[in-house]
UniProtKB/TrEMBL annotation, chain A:
One of its GO terms (biological process) is Arp2/3 complex-mediated actin nucleation. InterPro entries: ARPC1, WD40/YVTN_repeat-like_dom_sf, WD40_repeat_dom_sf, WD40_rpt. WD repeats lie at residues 48-82. GO terms for cellular component: Arp2/3 protein complex; nucleus. Keywords: Actin-binding, Cytoplasm, Cytoskeleton, Nucleus, Repeat, WD repeat. The keyword Nucleus applies. Component of the Arp2/3 complex, a multiprotein complex that mediates actin polymerization upon stimulation by nucleation-promoting factor (NPF). The Arp2/3 complex mediates the formation of branched actin networks in the cytoplasm, providing the force for cell motility. In addition to its role in the cytoplasmic cytoskeleton, the Arp2/3 complex also promotes actin polymerization in the nucleus, thereby regulating gene transcription and repair of damaged DNA. This is ARC1B protein.
From TrEMBL, chain B:
InterPro entries: ARPC5, ARPC5_sf. SUPFAM superfamilies: Arp2/3 complex 16 kDa subunit ARPC5 (SSF69103). PANTHER family: ARP2/3 COMPLEX 16 KD SUBUNIT P16-ARC. The lineage of its organism: Eukaryota, Metazoa, Chordata, Craniata, Vertebrata. Residues 14-29 have a biased composition (Polar residues). This is Actin-related protein 2/3 complex subunit 5. One of its GO terms (biological process) is regulation of actin filament polymerization. Functions as component of the Arp2/3 complex which is involved in regulation of actin polymerization and together with an activating nucleation-promoting factor (NPF) mediates the formation of branched actin networks. Arp2/3 complex plays a critical role in the control of cell morphogenesis via the modulation of cell polarity development. The gene is Arpc5l. Belongs to the ARPC5 family. Residues 1-29 are annotated as: Disordered. It is found in: Cytoplasm, Cytoskeleton. GO terms for cellular component: Arp2/3 protein complex. Pfam families: P16-Arc (PF04699).
Length: 369, 106
């Protein structure tokens, strides 16, 4: 596990370039900073200053190398690298609340922005007018859209919202693409069509993720649950009430395995058992350091009793790598079907890279299916 | 009074917890019954009772424990704290989170 402390403040959001040599992140302000890997060090190579509010989402298109950012200033910018300078292009989202999340579509000809305006802006480039335009998906969203993820077919979009629901919409834009062929989520996909809606869990949906094949979608909610809808089982939903604090980020690492992390500051493995349609907890992925187990002196015991009304040796400090909540997970290598490395960033200003093979050998009971 | 009776009363109270369609009167009656059952347990019997529940049962128990905290009687808080300790060991912080986020309260 490689941990790098970038900041003393939270990393609001991050995105990697295609070859994973550069990371773009928002250091809890109105800017985006890009760092490049220099051997074992990270050097800041760019500062993108255009937003008038905190940058809430960043996505880096791997093929076209364009960045898209969105912020509380209700704007989104598409950034293109010209020489050694990132040039922004404003995209009018037509929203009257903060933008909260942004994702390029797999073919990078569209991007989606979720916002507090209770809608999703689907943006695409209009050649004739040389600008980005957007269409809105509104119904039946009733609250802020916190997270988005595209299906590999470039058409379907999963959205997690503060109205406690996970939904899959069609974001088909006839101006830029062909009619889509049927998927297990349905065959008719006009723009804005609701293909799937979860029944109420009781928490804001913080993060949502399609599996690599697109036939499964998983989400984590603020009521400490993890859910998964399987289109291969007529969209049956499996849910797990976890024993942890709410999870804030989730990703598939294989078709059956998920990694999620959140307010417990540590990534955890979850497994989907397709035959039974159930989700189960697979273990914490943070291998604790060998803490020195020295006994307490009588004086220390008394001090503990006085201060904390308890003489047990439970730590006041965190054993985990991240010292505060993890807010985002990204897959680095291997894709969502054979992930070999993933990355976490959090409110401790740190970024950690996790190696799946090392985890499998270090945690003997770990079973990644 | 034997242990078995308390345990049976406990399971009955958990099972017959009013579902989604309920009046305030029904809810209060269920709360009263549950509180009576919980306070009738000896400390040493609590852990076994908690371990006999499934995940949903533990979540439901935690909701009743907090409801009991809301309306304390003379000796209720002490025994409820013991129930809380055992329920927390099984349900984790997640079960408390779900008390806070539940839209349908007990």
């Amino acid at each position: 596990m490689a941990y790098h402390s970038f900041l003393l403040e939270p990393i609001s959001c991050h995105a990697w370039n295609k070859d994973r040599t550069q990371i773009a992140l928002c250091p809890n302000n109105h800017e985006v900073h890009i760092y490049r890997k220099d051997g074992a060090k990270w050097s800041k190579v760019h500062e993108l200053k255009e937003h008038n509010g905190q940058v809430t989402g960043i996505d880096w298109a791997p093929e076209s190398n364009r960045l898209v950012t969105c912020g509380t200033d209700r704007n989104a910018y598409v950034w293109t690298l010209k020489g050694n300078v990132w040039k922004p292009t404003l995209v009018i989202l037509r929203i009257n609340r903060a933008a909260r999340c942004v994702k390029w579509s797999p073919k990078e000809n569209k991007f989606a922005v979720g916002s507090g305006s209770r809608l999703i802006s689907i943006c695409y480039f209009e050649q004739e007018n040389d600008w980005w335009v957007c269409k809105h998906i509104k119904k039946p969203i009733r609250s802020t859209v916190l997270s988005l993820d595209w299906h590999p077919n470039n058409i379907l979009l999963a959205a997690g919202s503060c109205d406690f629901k996970c939904r899959i919409f069609s974001a088909y834009i006839k101006e830029v693409e062909e009619r889509p062929s049927p998927t297990p989520w349905g065959s008719k996909m006009p723009f804005g069509e609701l293909m799937f809606e979860s029944s109420s869990s009781c928490g804001w949906v913080h993060s949502i993720c399609f599996s690599a094949s697109g036939s499964r979608v998983a989400w984590v909610s603020h009521d400490s649950t993890l859910c998964l809808a399987d289109a291969g089982k007529k969209m049956a939903v499996a849910s797990l009430c976890t024993e942890t604090l709410p999870l804030l980020a989730v990703t598939f690492i294989t078709e059956n395995s998920l990694v999620a992390a959140g307010h417990d500051c540590c990534p955890m493995l979850f497994t989907y058992e397709e035959s039974q349609g159930t989700l189960s907890f697979g273990g914490k992925l943070d291998v604790p350091k060998q803490s020195s187990q020295r006994g307490l002196t009588a004086r220390e015991r008394f001090q503990n009793l006085d201060k904390k009304a308890s003489s047990d040796t439970a730590n006041a400090t965190l054993d985990t790598l991240h010292k505060n909540s993890i807010s985002q997970i990204s897959v680095l290598t291997g894709g969502k079907d054979k992930c070999s490395q993933f990355c976490t960033t959090g409110m401790d200003g740190g970024m950690s890279i996790w190696d799946v093979k090392s985890l499998e050998s270090a945690l003997k009971d770990l079973k990644i299916k | 009074r034997r242990t078995g009776e308390a345990l049976r009363a406990f399971h009955t109270a958990i099972r017959s917890s009013p579902g989604s369609s309920r009046s305030q009167a029904m809810k209060e009656q269920a709360q009263g019954t549950m509180l009576k059952v919980l306070t009738s347990f000896k400390s040493s019997e609590i852990e076994q009772a908690v371990n006999s529940l499934d995940r949903n049962g533990v979540d439901l128990l935690m909701k009743y424990i907090y409801k009991g905290f809301e309306k304390p009687t003379e000796n209720s808080s002490a025994i409820l704290l013991q129930w809380h300790e055992k329920a927390l060991a099984v349900g984790g912080l997640g079960s408390i989170i779900r008390v806070l986020t539940a839209r349908k309260t007990v």
